[in-house]
Design brief:
alpha+beta, Nuclear Transport Factor 2, Chain: A, about 30% helix, five-stranded mixed beta sheet, single chain
């Protein structure tokens, strides 16, 4: 039997890929803490703002789950988000370039919602794809 949290994440990714940010955000509990994309953990308001920025920068962005592993209420996922850079992101104006952002995330669920999330994504690789920084030698 498939893990209910994996099913919940898959539904949220479908919502994202349809461009339905409001539905995607129901994945997160009101008390969520997201680690890894800012110096301090983000609360639900900051998470919402972060993903609103994402949707403006990559309006047709799509996420593909590559691997998921579940252990009780914890879920680990390796993903790639592909899209075209059409709005400012990380201080970089739109470039019109196609990008692929790889990442890994760990989510802790409670009652079908994410209450804590730790994420690492290849932001340096993204900046290289934007042309904002040179590729490492």
């Amino acid at each position: 039997m498939e893990n209910a949290n994996a099913t919940r994440l898959a539904q949220a990714i479908e919502d994202w890929n349809r461009g339905d940010l409001a539905a995607y955000l129901t994945l997160y509990d009101d008390d969520v803490r997201l680690h890894g994309y800012s110096p301090e953990p983000m609360d639900k308001t900051a998470v919402t703002g972060f993903y609103e920025q994402h949707f403006r920068a990559f309006p047709e962005g799509r996420i593909e789950l590559l691997h998921t592993f579940c252990d009780g209420d914890d879920l680990v996922a390796r993903f790639v988000m592909r899209g075209r850079h059409e709005g400012e992101f990380l201080g970089v104006p739109a470039t019109g370039r196609d990008i692929a952002l790889d990442g890994i995330t760990i989510m802790r669920f409670r009652d079908g919602r994410v209450v804590e999330r730790w994420s690492q994504a290849d932001m340096l690789g993204l900046l290289v794809q934007f042309g904002a920084v040179p590729a490492p030698a």
